[in-house]
Structures are given as structure tokens and as C-alpha cells.
Amino acid sequence: MSSQSTPDHLIKEAQTIHPVIDLIRRRWSPRSFSERMLDEERLNTLFEAASWAASSGNEQPWQYVYAFRGTEGFSKLWHCLDDGNRPWTFKASVLIASVKRTIIERNQKVNAWASHDVGMANAHMFLQAVSMGFYCHPMAGFYPDKLRETLGLDEFQEPVCMIAVGYLDDPDKLDEPNRTKEITPRTRKGIDTFARKIT
Amino acid sequence: MSSQSTPDHLIKEAQTIHPVIDLIRRRWSPRSFSERMLDEERLNTLFEAASWAASSGNEQPWQYVYAFRGTEGFSKLWHCLDDGNRPWTFKASVLIASVKRTIIERNQKVNAWASHDVGMANAHMFLQAVSMGFYCHPMAGFYPDKLRETLGLDEFQEPVCMIAVGYLDDPDKLDEPNRTKEITPRTRKGIDTFARKIT
User: What's the rounded Cα separation, in Å, for the pair B36 and B7?
Assistant: First the structure.
């Protein structure tokens, strides 16, 4: 990892059976963020990483609205988060709202792949962040109607998730239950439970 | 890249403005696949890479059904593809059906993030493949009802996309219009068109 990377003891590295790449093994969704701020250049690199995801018909249905900590915009986004996410996200360097465009530009039909394609773009962002030594935490726990109103979304835009971004800090700086969540090892189902070969 | 990697002239590397990681710059969705077959170990590595994606409530709503070229299973999956995708996918080493579980296991409610989270898992697969020198091409062009019947999906499973996987071959081995698509440079919208800062 680069010189910007986090001390290893703060990273919840996945214990994999197969030779999964480091970026994926080291990506996780932390809650303890340090004071250190991100800059525009790093943010733009995340967004460009997102932009090179695949999408159905190269439609690129992803949109992002973001704000840096310490601004009114950050406060507005933070107030769209639910009670579970507010106690730790206030220390994030950046909050991002991930939004999808629900219709296809060229024919105005519903884009059935919008959520899927936004997911691919978001995954690119998260791995790009790990490569630069910081982390993204996607959240489903927010108020979509409030976010819609805050951002002034139109009828063809829909909030997908919110994302907290920042450099890692010590888990002990969190209150419970977030401290325990922060140090609990990551777990996943075995591949035999979700992948099946047909012959 | 590893010793298994593809000759550089076959890779449509993204020309980026910001320092996006090589894996993302080199990921694309090819149509010209060589005779070389993948093995179970590489496939399992893809699936494990997928499994370490984030998901809402760690629900992991992704499922994959796959078949190797030369098997009846491959033929069944291939027949679920539409006319646009059949002329080149028959040479893929593996075809994968990406399926989502639509409800949350612990409470049986609809999982509004299923498509998004499957997208994140799929993006992991595609980047893992690039790291190992082969490529994945996700497709929206398939017959969902036929796929559903072929796979025997239940009411809580839904096809998301199909994926062709294999090592690259020369674009000239493709017929038109696929040959032209294969050599056309990749393009994306500028980040100023989809990312917006609020202050």
C-alpha cells in the first residue's frame, strides 16, 4: 500500500480462501474516522474511478452530490441520515449522496439496470479509495424523502445510498454499539451457498 | 500485470484525467474471446471476490449460476441471450447468470438494495478478473423469463444480468458490427456532468 495508507492494525482485512486481490481484501466499511480531511483532487479521482464502471448501453446512470465536513452542505446531508448513522458520520471528511437517473436518456424508458449500474460505480469508488489509503462506508439508513427534498431531485432521480468517506481512526474513539461493530471481524457466506455450476 | 496478462495492444485502456488505479483503467467489456479455458479455481476466486462486496445489512443478495463452454449448461445459458449477444458469446469460456434474492432473509421484507448490492459484487468480480488477466462482459440483452425458467428460479429470485467471461483474442476474429465495437475507444461523461458539490 502507499505511504498514505492506514496502520495495519486498523484494517479489518478479509481472510480469504482464494487469492482475492488486496484491494478487495482490505476494503471494508468503517465508522471511526480521523480529523484528516480529503481534498478535491482525491474526491475527483473517486468520481472518475466510478465513471469507468460498466453500464447498460453505457448509460452511466450514476450521480453524486457531496459536501466536506465543516460546511452547511455537510450538515444538510448529515441530517438526512437516520439515528443509527448520525453518531459516527459527523466525523467523516466527506458525505456523498449516491443518486440514480431512473430513465434512459435516448428513449426516456425506465432503466431497469440503474441500481445495478450505480452499484458497480460505487464499488469502483470504494476500491479506488482503499488504493489511496482512505475508506468509504455506504449506508442504506437515511431518509430518502428528506434527501430528495434537500437535493431538489426531479422525478427521474432517485436516492440510492449515502456514503461516508474519510481516513481511519482508532475504534476506541467510538461509543457503543459502534465500537464493537468496528472491531468485529468481517464475515461472508461461503461461495458454495451462492454460486452453482450447471453442466 | 501478471504473466497471465493479455498483450497490451488488445486492451482498451481508459485515458483518465485523475490517477485512477490500473485495474479500473484496464477493465472493459470485450467481445473477442480466445479458445483458452478458465478453470474452477479462477472462477471460485471471482466468486469469492464478489462475496467481499458491501451489502445492506450484510445481506449478500447475490447468486450466480455458471457453465463452462462445451457443456449442455453453457448451451442452455447461451440460448437465454438475445440476438445481439449470441454471435460472440459462444466463444466465451464461461457464461454466468447473475441473480438477486429479492427479500431479506431475517424479516422477509423486500430488499430495496438488492440490485445495487449485486452490482457491487459484480464489479468486484470484473476487477478481480482483470487482475488475473481475463475479462468479464456483463449483458442486459437476455430473455429474463427464459432464464428464469432455465434456472428454475423461485418467486424471490430475479435475474439481474448475464456475464461472458474469458481471455482476450484478436478483434479481427469478430464479424461486424462487433469488430468495430471491439476497437472503438471507450468513452465516459466528464465528472462535472454527474458529481456536484454543495457547500
Answer: 14
- Residue A147: phi and psi, rounded to 5, are -65, -40
Please say whether the dihedral angle defined by the alpha carbons of residues A163, A166, A167 and A172, taken in this order, is positive or negative.
negative
CB B122 to CB A124 under 8 A? Answer: no
Most B CBs within 10 Å, among A39, A51, A68, to test the B interface: A51
The predicted-structure confidence for B168-181, as pLDDT tens digits, reads as follows 999 999 999 999 99
Q: Is the pLDDT confidence value at A9 over 90? A: no
> For A123, which of B57, B67, B120 is closest by C-beta distance?
B120
The pLDDT of residue B11 is: 79
Omega within 30 of 0 (cis) for the link into A30: no
Residue A131 lies in a domain: yes
d(CA B167, CA B33): 5
Q: Three cell numbers at A189?
A: 457466506
Q: Give the CATH number of the domain where residue B66 resides.
A: 3.40.109.10
In a domain, A109, yes or no: yes
Which residues span the domain enclosing B103?
Answer: 16-193
Q: Which of residues 112-151 of B touch A (CB under 8 A)?
A: 112-113, 115-124, 126-128, 131, 138, 140, 151
Give yes or no for residue A1 having a pLDDT over 50.
no
Number of domains in chain B: 1
Q: Is residue A199 part of a domain?
A: no
User: At CA B130, angle to CA B100 and CA A12, rounded to 5?
Assistant: 70
Burial of A104 (0-12, 13-18, 19+ CB in 10 A): middle
Q: Do B51 and A117 touch (CB under 8 A)?
A: no
